[in-house]
Write a structure and sequence with these properties.
7 helices, 5-stranded mixed β-sheet, alpha+beta
Length: 305
């Protein structure tokens, strides 16, 4: 009896211990599972945050890179439209004009306009306009001033159009992208109404592209070549030289004699034409005058008698 009770007691203790161990394992397992779930959730959230941050950083970097590239482009290749207007006193207008034309050709430029006039009867003045490559702009100005006797006025201007050109480039790329998309839409369009709408939008975009490209070409030309306008006035009076040529006295006498003979022939010919051509009128007028003279003479004789 005591042995049975002892066995039952041992079995009861064993069952209690087994139950406790199973509960502990289950609790630890559930805890592990919960911990693993939290860890996975935490890992997932951290990955999403990293991805979002990476995207933000990438966008920021790309934006900064674009800004940096634009700033480098602006700083490395400034586009400036230079214009110069000079008023000069020169000793010899013709020689200075030839020298400036030769120097402009030497620098790769060209003459746009030239005008010359006289003042004070013997002195020359005028204006010349050149287009000179940008890199030779200031050397050409130095050459002009060195060729002048006196610089009356010197006005140089520079207009920076770099930012405008960069903005035009950006707008052009955007319009070209829109043009490409519209071309693709046109290929896939099947309805006539859609084709007409896309064609209208495409025409507008292409017109805007042409306007942007035209403005860009204008800025490129204006920045590649500078405009130099020069007004010149001569200070020296040209003194005529002595003529050492033959005076040709005998030839001049013969010329004058022939001229007089020709004039006399012309006069006699005119008289003959006048008399013969108006002969009836002359005879009529002569008869009237002769009759009047005879009548007056007879009247005077009668009075005397």
């Amino acid at each position: 009896m005591k042995t049975k009770q002892l066995l039952l007691f041992l079995l009861l203790i064993a069952s209690v211990v087994s139950a406790c161990s199973n509960q502990g394992e289950n609790q630890s397992y559930s805890t592990k599972n919960e911990d693993s779930g939290v860890e996975e959730k935490h890992v997932s959230l951290s990955m999403d945050n990293k991805a979002s941050e990476a995207n933000k950083v990438e966008e920021q970097l790309s934006k900064e890179e674009r800004q940096t590239s634009d700033s480098k482009q602006i700083s490395n290749s400034r586009m400036v439209i230079h214009n110069a207007d000079l008023e000069l006193k020169v000793k010899n207008y013709s020689k200075t004009q030839e020298a400036l034309e030769s120097k402009a050709i030497e620098y790769g430029g060209y003459l746009v306009e030239s005008s010359t006039s006289h003042f004070n009867q013997d002195q020359l003045s005028g204006r010349m306009t050149f287009r000179i490559p940008e890199e030779k702009f200031f050397p050409f100005l130095n050459d002009i001033e060195s060729a002048a006797a006196k610089v009356i006025n010197r006005h140089v201007t520079g207009q920076d159009v770099t930012e405008e050109y960069v903005d035009l480039e950006s707008r052009l790329r955007s319009k070209q992208a829109v043009e490409k998309r519209l071309m693709e839409f046109m290929k896939n369009a099947k309805e006539t109404e859609d084709l007409l709408k896309i064609s209208s939008d495409l025409a507008k975009v292409q017109e805007e592209i042409e306007q942007l490209m035209g403005r860009m070409h204008y800025l490129e030309n204006q920045t590649a070549f500078s405009t130099v306008s020069i007004g010149m006035e001569e200070t020296e009076i040209e003194i005529p030289s002595f003529e050492n040529q033959d005076l040709n006295t005998w030839q001049k006498v013969k010329k004058q004699f022939v001229l007089n003979i020709n004039w006399l022939q012309s006069f006699l010919s005119a008289c003959v034409v006048f008399i013969l051509g108006n002969l009836p009128v002359i005879i009529l007028i002569g008869g009237i005058l002769a009759g009047s003279f005879l009548f007056i003479r007879r009247q005077k004789q009668r009075k005397k008698d």
